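Appendix B. One record, verbatim.
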Amino acid sequence: MKLKYNYVDPRLQPDEELIFMSPKQFNRLAIAPIKLKNIGKPEVFTEGSQRKKAYVDKETGRVYYKFKLGRVYGRIKQGKEMDAPYLTIRNDDCKVINHEGRHRAKASEMLGIEEIPVILRCRTHDC
């Protein structure tokens, strides 16, 4: 049985559009908060006052929190509905200025899902 990303039907705003792309493509476009050097190895690092275990992607060097990745992996595998990830794009230069959903995209990629829904939000200025 082929898995798919079940998503809650979004109530789109006038400046939003629902598109589909590969999870890998989403994560290439998403802004990563940090990159670590020990690629492919588990890391423990401090964010604020919390110590979190993280997985560092071998290809991109981007960080994914193990707990969060495991949770969304399980929900997607069970076929539960989840919100669609989003990318906020600045209209004047088409640069991604915000995102949500890197862990959902990575879990989808790990499960072999070829396309995920993504909400594109277009903004005329950096808010």
